[in-house]
């Protein structure tokens, strides 16, 4: 059985993942040289933890994970409520501190919510694929999705919440939701966005949007990070300024350079060629994930793979977009590249699920 899984596995996903991790470790080496490489060492430890878990996830029956997802969903809701009562870090209550380790439940909620929504959608569709389009049943799916997302918004972590939304849309699309619901949702968003801006969003969130539209309104305050990031991206030119030689990076103008703005560091020190190569790797990774969804042996596999594709798609677009000033800053990390233990582990679990699903495909269903 293991030999069959390894034969069918989508190896391109694994290759892209390790290339991104390698670039990330090189970038973290440069970013942390003045801090005795502390975050680099922690990232390597998390990588060592993630690799055996990746292997385990590849060979676990993903259908079994979907079956126990209601229990996992309940546990993660408790954790998302509990984290709201922890001390704020950088204005957000997103982490549990367990000794020297910080644990971010929202990262693992991505996986669990995808599995639970897969369980719920497939249960609803047992009587027919079009059952998802019945108002009450679609409403149940939306509620199951909305509860953890609202808890994450409460932290507040708007970037992660939006990642959930994109993943959910990907899953509903492949599940066969009717176009009228999609059009209705788009119209609601058009109406609600101005309402959220004026009456719901806190001041710091409004400021981020204002600064995104015009960074020069507060160049020494809220607009500072995006201005420095754009300078770093532009100054790298074709081949970069050289590792450990970036002006914005090494002189302390770029912050936080190990997480949110690591792509700016890469652009400045390694240049356009490496930065473009990273984008190409993400495009291949996401395309492969969608292909896994297309060729999965069952609907469960398709829904999980598309949900994961949505997560990776949003994180890539948002992180790279915000470093270049094309999108508002939301604090979304770059998968496999940015520093962060919980994010790295959850990303490897998602890759493991993709490899798991691809490994269980039948050779006969491959398309040319």
Q: What would your notes on this structure say?
A:
The structure is a single chain. The protein is mainly alpha-helical. The protein is 69% helix and 2% strand. It has 15 helices and two strands. Strands 1-2 form a two-stranded antiparallel sheet. Helix 7 runs antiparallel to helix 8 and helix 14 packs antiparallel against helix 15 (341-359). The chain is globular, with a radius of gyration of 21 Å. Residues 363-368 have low confidence and may be disordered.
Write the layout of secondary structure elements.
Blueprint: H1 2-8, H2 11-31, H3 38-59, H4 62-67, H5 69-82, E1 96-98, E2 101-103, H6 105-124, H7 135-153, H8 158-175, H9 179-200, H10 203-213, H11 224-235, H12 247-250, H13 262-295, H14 299-323, H15 341-359
Antiparallel strand pairs: 1-2
Helix pairs in contact: 2-13, 2-15, 3-15, 5-6, 5-7, 6-7, 6-8, 6-14, 6-15, 7-8, 8-14, 11-13, 13-14, 13-15, 14-15
């Amino acid at each position: 059985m293991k030999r069959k899984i390894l034969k069918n596995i989508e190896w391109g996903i694994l290759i892209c993942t390790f290339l991104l991790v390698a670039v990330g470790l090189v970038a973290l080496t440069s970013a942390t040289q003045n801090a005795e490489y502390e975050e680099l060492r922690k990232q390597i430890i998390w990588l060592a933890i993630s690799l055996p878990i990746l292997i385990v996830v590849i060979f676990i029956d993903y259908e079994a994970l979907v079956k126990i997802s209601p229990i996992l969903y309940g546990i993660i809701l408790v954790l998302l409520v509990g984290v709201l009562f922890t001390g704020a870090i950088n204005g957000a209550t997103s982490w549990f501190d367990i000794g020297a380790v910080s644990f971010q439940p929202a990262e693992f909620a991505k996986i669990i919510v995808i599995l639970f929504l897969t369980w719920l959608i497939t249960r609803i569709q047992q009587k027919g694929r079009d059952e998802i389009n019945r108002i009450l049943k679609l409403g149940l799916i939306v509620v199951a999705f909305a509860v953890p997302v609202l808890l994450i918004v409460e932290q507040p972590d708007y970037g992660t919440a939006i990642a959930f939304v994109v993943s959910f849309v990907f899953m509903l699309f492949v599940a066969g939701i009717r176009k009228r619901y999609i059009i209705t949702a788009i119209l609601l968003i058009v109406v609600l966005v101005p309402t959220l801006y004026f009456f719901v969003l806190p001041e710091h969130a409004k400021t981020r949007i204002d600064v995104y539209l015009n960074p020069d309104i507060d160049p020494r305050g809220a607009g500072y990070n995006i201005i420095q990031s754009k300078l770093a991206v532009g100054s790298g030119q074709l081949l970069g300024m050289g590792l450990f030689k970036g002006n914005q990076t090494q002189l302390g103008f770029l912050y936080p350079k190990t997480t949110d703005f690591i792509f700016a560091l890469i652009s400045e020190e390694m240049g356009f060629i490496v930065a473009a190569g990273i984008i190409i790797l993400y495009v291949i990774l996401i395309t492969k994930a969608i292909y896994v969804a297309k060729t999965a042996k069952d609907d469960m596999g398709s829904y999980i793979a598309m949900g994961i594709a949505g997560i990776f798609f949003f994180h890539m677009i948002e992180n790279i977009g915000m470093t270049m000033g094309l999108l508002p800053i939301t604090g979304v990390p770059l998968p496999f590249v940015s520093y962060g233990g919980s994010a790295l582990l959850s990303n490897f679990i998602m890759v493991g699920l993709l490899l798991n699903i691809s490994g269980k495909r039948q050779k006969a269903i491959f398309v040319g």
